[in-house]
Amino acid sequence: MVIQASLVQWLKLITFACTLLAVHIVYMGDLPKGEFSAVTLHNNMLEQVIGSGASELLLHSYRKSFNGFAAKLTNEEAEKLADMEGVVSVFQSQKKELHTVRSWDFVGFFEHSKRTVLESDIIVAVVDTGIWPESESFDDKEFGPPPKKWKGSCQKSSNFTCNNKIIGARYYRAKGDYPLEDLQSPRDSVGHGSHTASIAAGAVVSKASLYGFRAGTVRGGVPSARIAVYKICWYDGCYDEDILAAFDDAIADGVDIISLSVGGFFASEYFSDSIAIGAFHSMKNGILTSNSAGNDGPYYASVVNISPWSLSVGASTIDKKFQTMVKLGNGKVFKGTSINTFDLKGKFYPLIWGADAPKYSSSESRVCLPGSLNETLVKGKIVLCDYLDFMEGPLQAGAVGALIRDDGFKDFAYTFMLPASVLGLTDGSDILHYINTTKKAEAAILRSTEEKDELAPYVASFSSRGPNILSLDILKPDITAPGVDILAAWSEATTMTGVINDKRIVPYNIISGTSMSCPHATAVAAYVKSFHPTWSPSAIKSALMTTAWPMSPKTNTDLEFAYGSGLINPSSAIDPGLVYDAGEIDYIKFLCGQGYSSKQLRLVTGDNKTGCTKATNGSALDLNYPTFALVVSLSGDDTYFSRDFHRTVTNVGSPVSTYNAIVNAPKELDIKVKPNVLSFKSIGEKKSFVVTVAVKVGLPTVSGTLVWDDGVHKVRSPVVAF
C-alpha cells in the first residue's frame, strides 16, 4: 500500500508539473521574406495549440532581426508547438546571471573589491605598441587632472590627443626609419599595446565582446589608475635602443609601475639586456617592472626575462575555452579549436585536401601557403591544410573555410581570416581518409562556442618555463596570471588578425600570450601600491608571490618551473603579513656573486664605494627572495645534497604577532627551518631565519612549501630541488 500510494503521489506531481505555465521561447529562425504580421502569425500558432485566450499568453513577438515569440506554455503545449511547421526550437526560458570578462573574476578580484582613493594617483607605464585613445576603455569620464607627481608629457602628433586617463604618451624610433604600415605617433596600429593597457588599467566598459564572444563587462585590474604610454614596438619589432629610451623617460616621468610585455629570443646576461638594465634602474628608483616570461614553452629554460629585480609572469588559463565543431558529410563530428566568428549556418561545402589542389607544387599546396593553391580547384570549398597560420592562402584562392591538422597544443584558440578549425593529427588524418575514400566529400564548419574548462587553472603550453639559465638558484618565472583567450581593447587601425586582407575591424579582441598575463600582474602590483605607496618594488613583488593561489601539480607537471609561486591572488596581496624585502645593495651583492666586477658595479650604481669584497660577494642562495631553489650538484657517493638559505622577513601585518613555520614536502625532500617561530612586536620589525634543504641525489624535480602562519596570514614560499 505504501508503494502504491507513493506512486500515485508521483503521478499527481508529474501531471501537475505538465500543466504548470512557464515562459518558453519559440524560435523560428530568420525573418520571412516580404511583409508579414508577426503578432498575427504567432497568435494563430498559439490558438492552434491553446485555443481561445492565446493572445493573453503571448508575451513578446520577435520581428526586427529574427522570427519567434515568447509565451507562457505548459510542457505539453510546448511540445506541440515544437512539432509545428516553421519552428526551429522551443525551450524554457532560464534565469541567467550578468557576465563579466572572466580573467579578473576568475582570480577572485571582482569589480567591487576593496579599493582606495589613492588608486587614481597610481600611474601605470605601458611600454608596448602604443594605444588607441578613442577606445571606451580609455575614456576619462569622471577623472580629475593628472596627479601632481606626474612630470611626463604627451608627445605632439597630428593624430593623437591625451586625456585625464591617458596622461602621457611618447613614441620611440631612434633609427628614424618608420615602417610604412605604422603610424608615426603614440597611436597603436598593431593592437597589442591597447590590449595590454586595458587589461592593466582600462576603465569599466559594459556590453563589450568580440562578435558576441566573452560578452559582458570588460575592465582593467585598476580601472581608476592613470596610463602613461611609451611606444617602443613597431611592425618590425622592438629595438633595445628604444626600450632603454622608454625606461629612461618613464622613470623620470614619475610612473609607479612599468608593464613590459616584450622579450628577446633568449635570456641574455643581465647587463647585456636592455630590459634587465631598465628594470634595475626602475627598481633603484622605487618602481617595479612587470615582465612577460615569454612564449617559448613548454621547453625548459625558455623564460627570457629573468632578472631578480623584476617580476616575471607566466600565463595560465581561465575556466572558459573555445571549441569549433566540424561536421562531415558522413555524419561524423569533430571538435576543433579556434575562435570562429563566422557563421556559415551549418551549410555543407565541398571538401578538398590542399595537396590535391596545387598551383605549382603539392608540397607547397598541402600546407596552404599564400599563392600555392589552385583557385579553380579550391574556390567555394573547404580546404584541409597541414600547416597552421592565418590561412591567408585559402582565402586568396577563394576557399570558403579551412581545416588545419596540427600536432601542437590545443589549450588556447587562434583566430583566422575565414571560417577555420584546428584539429589534432588523428582527427585530421580521419578527415583526410574521408576525402580520399568519398566521391563527393563535404564538410560544415560551425561557429565557435564556449564551454567550461574543468581543469583550469593550468599553465598554458606556450608559457615559457624555468629554470633561470643565468642564475639557477633564482626560481623563474615568479608567478602566473590569466593569459589565455583574454578579451581586451584593440586598435581600430588594424584588423582582428592583424593581417591586411582581413576585413574585420574590432574595438575588442581575444588573444593569448604571456603578454596578456603580464598586465594582469602589473595591475595587482599597482593595486598593492595604492594601499602601500611607500613599499619597495621587492616588497610589492613579495606580496604577490607569497599570497598566490597554489596550483595543482597534476595539471602542471612542470611544477614551479611553469607557475612559479602560483596564480595571482589580488585580494590577499594587499595584506601579506610578511614580506621578503630587498634593495639595491642586496642585488649588488648578488651580482658580485654572479661574477660581475667592482668596476662594472660602480658604474651601474654610480657609487665609487661599491665593490665586491669577501663580505659583499653574496651567493644567489642568500638573496632575500620569496622562493627557494636548490640546484643539486652530483659529487662523489653522496646520497643527499643540502644547502642553507638565509632569509629575512619584515612584518607588515599585525603589530604583535607570532608566526609558526609549516613545512609541506614529500619524504624525498627534507626542509628544516631555524628558528621555526618568529615573534614580532611592531610593524616594520625584521626577523631572520635559516632554511636547510636536503634532497636525495638522483631524483627528478621535487618541490614542497614553507608557510609562515600566524592564524590570519599564510606567507607561502615554494621550495624546489632539481
UniProtKB/TrEMBL annotation:
Biological processes, Gene Ontology terms: proteolysis
Domain Inhibitor I9, residue spans: 23-99
Catalytic machinery residues: D128, H192, S515
Subtilisin-like protease fibronectin type-III domain ranges (all copies): 622-720
Domain of life assignment: Eukaryota
Domain Peptidase S8/S53: 120-566
GO MF annotation: an example: serine-type endopeptidase activity
Keyword NAD: no
Keyword terms: Hydrolase, Protease, Serine protease, Signal
InterPro entries hit by this protein: Peptidase_S8/S53_dom, Peptidase_S8/S53_dom_sf, Peptidase_S8_Ser-AS, Peptidase_S8_subtilisin-rel, Peptidases_S8_3, S8pro/Inhibitor_I9, S8pro/Inhibitor_I9_sf, SBT
PANTHER family: PROPROTEIN CONVERTASE SUBTILISIN/KEXIN
Family: Belongs to the peptidase S8 family.
Record protein name field: Cucumisin
Taxonomic source organism: Gossypium lobatum
